[in-house]
Request: fold
Amino acid sequence: MMIKQWFKSGSPWIWMNAAAVSISLILVIGLLLLIAVRGLGHYWPAEVIEYEYQESNQPIKIMGELVDSTVMSARQARASNYQLEADADHLIQHLIKVGNRDLTGMDFRWIDAPNIKAKESPKQAIVIERREWGNFYGYLIALKSHGKVIATEATAWDEMQPRLEKVLEIFEEIKALQNGEVGKINYGLEQLRLKQRRLEIDKQWNDEAEKEILEQKKAYDADYVVLQQQLATLYQQISADSLLVKSANGKEIEISLEKCVRIHRPNAMSMVAKIWHYGEKFIEFIVEEPREANTEGGIFPAIFGTVMMVMLMAVIVTPFGVVAAVYLREYAKQGFTTRLIRIAVNNLAGVPSIVYGIFGLGFFVYILGGNIDELFYPESAPSPVFGTPGLMWASLTLALLTLPVVIVSTEEGLSRIPKSIREGSLALGATKAETLWRTVLPMASPAMMTGLILAIARAAGEVAPLMLVGVVKLAPTLPLDGNFPYLHLERKFMHLGFHIYDVGFQSPNVEAARPLVYATSLLLVVVIIGLNMFAISVRNNLREKYRALEG
Amino acid sequence: MPETHINFTTSPYYQRWRRIKDEIAEYSVIAGGLGVIGAIVLIFFYLLYVVFPLFLAAEAHSITRYNVPAQQSGKTLLLANEEQNEVGVRFTDQGFAIFFAIETGKIIHRQKIALPEKHKLTSFTQGNPASGIVAYGLDNGQVVVAKHEYKITYPNDVRLITPTISYPLGKSPLNLKATDQAITQLAIKVDEEQTSIVAKTADNHIVFSHFKKQESLFDEESSLEQTSTLLDISATEISDILVDKEHRNLYLASSSGRLSFFDISKKTKPMIRQHLNVVEAGLKLTKITFLNGDLSLLVGDSSGTVSQWSMVRDEQGRPALKNIRQFKVSENPITQIKAEERRKGFVTVDTTGSVGVYHSTSERELIKKQVSNQSAVALSLSPRANHFMLETTDKQLHVWSLENEHPEVSLRSLWQEVWYESYSKADYVWQSSSASNDFEPKMSLTPLVFGTLKASFYTMLVAIPLSLMGAIYTAYFMAPSLRGYVKPSIEMMGALPTVILGFLAGLWLAPLIEIYLAGILSLLIIVPIAVMLFAYSWQYLPKKIHQKIPEGWDALILLPVILLASWFAFTLNTPIESLFFEGDLQAWLNKEFGISYDQRNSLVVGIAMGIAVIPTIFSITEDAIFSVPKHLTIGSLALGATPWQTMTKVVLLTASPGIFSAIMIGFGRAVGETMIVLMATGNTPVMDLSVFEGMRTLSANIAVEMPESEVDSTHYRVLFLAALVLFLFTFVFNTLAEIIRQRLREKYSSL
Reply:
């Protein structure tokens, strides 16, 4: 009776609706927490554990970081041919990051909890981050210089640190030379080749031109020889020292210091050292280039590419979006047509982004780019310059995609400006253009900002169209460098969103790449949510302002 | 007192300049505004522009006509042209190869094939048309294999094509060993490793001879290892012999339409597989040939019908020939059929000289032209299928050009079931490309549209209840102070990049669901029950607690309840599985219902895409409900209705158009979403409604295949068509929703 009454009051349905809100909230907060925890947690130096493990009748030692654990029901485990004790009702398995890919062929392995005989966290265990083959886990035996042992065990550790720092310094120097000077020479030579080809096409290739180009080539070659020597000495310095290390199973290998990025003993680290390490890793993530097929290192080129693309897009979309909005609100005669246009613009925001991508590829890249190549770059045929996906086309495509956002937002801003202001300006003798330029547009500028920020937030997170018009998994050069004309609009670039897709799904070593993907996601989420919040606060401020004006 | 003087009269030039500026501004804004809107319209028209050629009719034009060149060298056995359509060749019954310029008919080169002088030529055949192989059968049972080739050079930057004849198996005739009788019918296939020759001899035997190239370790030269066998079949009636390019199947046809099909994969032991009639009783088989790829046969008969027979696995899994489609080409007997070398098209000629161009997959008759009123002697189709030459009985050579870019697409092949080669029945298949030329592109958009709708369906199943109920509560029952936080946070979810949702769905949620499937499904029951129980006991809590928590904060109180219930459901996972499902739900489903389980399935997509769509629907619905005029609800409450009654009977009814348009917009978003489906499903284009299997959607398909698609190919245009379908789909949905919303706004303002 009571229950019937209760149902009749409708209160259970209200509760159910409340539950829907709660679930949605849990989804939002849960998602953000998940990304934050996984993304932030990765760089904390994890404990290195050494397991004594029984593997098919013979005991082995496994050393590594615990990554994950799962529980499998006994029945399932038996069905998949696991040997279990008779009374066991479940099987626990651990995923261990064992590293040492050069020795074992895999970075990760699953171990079954019942087969673990013992485990400890040896203070002496070292983790070496390498430039290839992933991490090394094991013990330090000796430090070698020019092939001779100069320090062993305890002293080796102290001796090694300054040498590693030195090596890293030289490495940076080499990289700077490679990217800067050598890159410049290569670029110059390529330009010379194109120049020659151009002259040949224009039928102006003669002895004089040949001589000139040969001279320039000679100058470059001379520079190159000097650089080569410089590099050779640096290479000699960097490859002098090496480490003798052994894995948990006692296998000894020698690792050259030049291949090392960072060496630490996580089990012996103090809290401060751990925080320091964390900070270092985090900065590396932001400012360094990726290593090992994007699964290690930083994501700087992706951040840079995203920012470049978004900035270009903003430069393109703002004037067009604003002009279109001004036309719709200030100049066009309001009626059926404007209503139709508004509906069309509104709905373009709902057109799938991949459709913009395919349009960008077909129209911008193949038609526009192809024609630009034919007209202006005949010398580089058959390799396309603009007739291939690149930064410019990606920005243009995204500008088209975000155009509705800017139009709608600017229009809303314009419509909020009280009529009295326009009339006042006109009454004082200003022309319509002056009214717009001096009073209306400045007042609507926060609305434009809002639209622009929302557009940027959308563009930064968009991936599908970019896959067609210019994003690559690994760009050899940044779109901005020291070679004239500095900004290379035709280059392909890297992008945070695509990086997530590529590393998470196309990478050969997904397990190793996963933490990096979480960290990248976190960065992207923070940026986008930050932008959105900023846009919302700008909009709210704007509303306050006009409320005051109207009153 | 100094006079203050304000000069109002500025220079007239300045005033004019202002006016001009004003006009410039006006026109540039109008131009800019219209330009932007034009650019948006351009998208639509550009898509149309790319798609349009798919549906253009094919065309054929007569280029020229002249007398057959070098008639004194004999009658034509075979007519062929090289790729650039500059040089044609005529093989004659006197053993000549006459190369001539196609445009003028001028003889370029006339060469006698190296046939032994003392023996007569008794039969002739062509190998794989793309390889240029021809073979001559002699009256002593020997065979000569020749090849016509074209070398392209660019002296002085002008293309020059030089035809040559070569002998890939040596100049000396090959002995078939099993016979010394005259060869009356011949078939040959030659490739890098092996050669198969099948011959019918004058004493009515069928000889199968196989040559395998043996690479010697020490010797540069390779030798041929030959096996020859006599086939156990009466050959009296046999009029056509065909060997496929895999050297695996042999077909013998008689003019009465009897077809025998041998398995010759074991070279020393050919096995008969099937006898069947391929033309109706009373009709004559007039021409039989392979379709490109040698997987199916085209059979022309005396009633003017061409039927396509393909090798299909029958119920017992044995290969058998099946008639998969028929073309009524003409009322007269068919004299020639030529298959295209790179596509599944073919050209036919009947006795009256009427030429037809067809495509098998799309079942289209592309062109029908009366080229001559004479019967055909020989027909040649260029490798790119953009030219054909027809020699008629009046010694005339007709040269025609063909414009036939996209024959493989028709409304039928895009949307209906098509019986593809080697398939056991007609089906919807999307399988667009492969490395080889022989591949039959299967471009049915149906499985993709199905996948798109399936993904959207499961998405809406997740999103609609959560977002609508959430919106109802937020707009109507929630405390305003709380609403100020809840609404933006849920809307914030919509700003999350979909690539992140897709990544989480694919790499975190999918494995999680795979392990805790039973637990996740039990959430559907456990959470509502927990909420109900909590709500029921809530009213019996002491008043003090009630007073502490203001009305409209229920959603927050429920947070721990739901979290607890979910945790409980997850811990129940293993018990539920062992109690009801023999310890493994997936295995149980497969055993009991035959439902297979993909890790990345529709459930994962539904949840992930649901999260992406919830904010959209939630936000619009919430707005619609919130802006229902207050006097309506107050009136209802004043008349004694409970809040819930007011909600369902007044508010929801009034806001229903807004809710409808919210759902439409959400649906439009789900249809076009790319990254989530790309990452959270296996992207296999299957047509299966099961929630535990994946799908491939239109958008994901574009993202996957577009970068590899060749510009302006049929595949490229079909992908654009897919984009156009998506575009129209979402545009129509969104426009409808927008119009409904505008109407609603007007309605509210009148209330």
Observations:
- Chain B touches chain A through 116 residues (CB under 8 Å).
